[in-house]
Amino acid sequence: MVLHTTLSHLDSRKGGYVRLLFIDYSSAFNTIVPTRLAGKLIELGLNTPLCAWILDFLTDRPQVVRVGRHTSNPLTLNTGSPQGCVLSPLLYSLYTHDCVARFSSNTIIKFADDTVVVGLISNNDEKAYLEEVADLSLWCQDNSLLLNVTKTKELIVDFRRTQQQRTYSPLEINGNTVERGQRWSQDQTHSKTTPLKTTKTRLSESEIQNKNKF
């Protein structure tokens, strides 16, 4: 969907470009607040007994560490969803279901804890995209999710045929500048840059190069 949304905008001939923000969360599953999740599930229309069961499943969970014959004292957890549990990706998706784009020119695409903000820029107006990222940062704070700005990367796809110097507004989250991992342009399709972490939502290099031929 990321690739389709990006290429559709580039094909629209509106003289625009696309900014993609690949979000990285710190211990995403471990930061779920069970009581807040239960409230969101009720708002989604799940029946009360099921919500109560999920809340009970996620709270007062004993955890120990075992190394060889030695076992630590138990620690009771009241946040997060167990790593490796088949329910965890689903519960996280439900927990973040209300994280949606405010502006029509932006799209927030999620797959479990992988998140991409797609900003379709026209007429060099990046205001909606920058505000969307600021909104996302505030949403994360309100929902106890930790953005890892160091591992969060941005990709810019700009195929405009122009001799003018291309400039893009710097992107900051919580006072830290987001690293721009790569920029795809009409005259630069093989630049060596820091690779983006995510694989599920990454743009296909072959698709970008095919687009560049037209």
From TrEMBL:
Residues 1-178 form the Reverse transcriptase domain. Pfam families: RVT_1. Residues 179-214 are annotated as: Disordered. Residues 202-214 have a biased composition (Basic and acidic residues). It comes from the Eukaryota. PROSITE patterns: RT_POL. InterPro entries: DNA/RNA_pol_sf (IPR043502), RT_dom (IPR000477). Residues 179-188 have a biased composition (Polar residues). This is Reverse transcriptase domain-containing protein.
